[in-house]
Design a protein that fits this description.
Blueprint lengths: L8 E7 L6 H15 L3 E9 L3 H16 L3 E5 L3 H9 L11
Parallel strand pairs: 1-2, 2-3
Helix pairs in contact: 1-2
Length: about 100
Amino acid sequence: MGTPQPKPVTFAIGGPITRTDLPGLCDRVCELLAEAGTDTVVCDVRGVATDVVTVDALARLQLGARRRGCRVVLRHASDDLRRLVHFMGLADVLVEEP
C-alpha cells in the first residue's frame, strides 16, 4: 500500500482583480502550496470578472505553482472566461478540473 496523496487545496478568487493585486495574490497562493504540501490547488473562479487582468492573474498563479512542482486547476469558470482563455492561447495552461 502506498502513501496517500494529500488532498488538493481549494480557494476562491472573488471580485475584480487589478494589476496591483497580482503580486500579493501570487504570494498567498504560493504560501498555500508550501503549507499544504500538495501538488494541486483548485481555484474557484465563479466570482471573477472576465477580463485580461483576470486571465493574467490566473496564468501567473499557474506559473508560480509550476515553479514549485504543482498546478492550479480552475473550478466554475464561466463560458466567457473559457472563451477568453482560449482566445489568449492559454487553454492548455489554464485547465478546469475534470
